[in-house]
Amino acid sequence: MKNSYSLDSLANLVNSEQEQLEDLGLKPTSVRPSELTIQTILGFSKQLSIRKSTTLGTYEQNCN
Predict the structure, then answer these.
(1) Is 1 within the bounds of a domain?
(2) Is residue 31 part of a domain?
(3) Quick one: which of 34, 60, 57 has its CA closest to 47?
(4) Helix (H) or strand (E) holding 14
(5) Model confidence over 5-56: pLDDT tens digits?
(6) How many CB atoms neighbour CB 34 within 10 A?
(7) How many structural domains comprise the chain?
(8) CA 48 to CA 62: how far, in whole Å?
(9) Domain residues for 58?
(10) Cβ(47)–Cβ(63) under 8 Å?
(11) Which of 37, 60, 41 is nearest to 50 (CA)?
(12) What is the four-CA torsion angle of 35, 36, 40, 43, rounded to 10 degrees?
């Protein structure tokens, strides 16, 4: 039994589907946080201290 599709026809199909999705406004985009946002979160996680205490239970402390 001979294959009726080739890799070229599959690639053409995928490209045409991508074009149709773009025409409909459904193009998948990857949204990433900015570098400033990442650095802010990392800075906050470095200064945050969560510890256990026998009298207070669990408490959070911001070490600036």
Answers:
(1) no
(2) yes
(3) 60
(4) helix 7-24
(5) 788 888 888 889 888 888 888 876 678 889 999 999 988 888 888 888 888 8
(6) 8
(7) 1
(8) 5
(9) 7-62
(10) yes
(11) 60
(12) 60
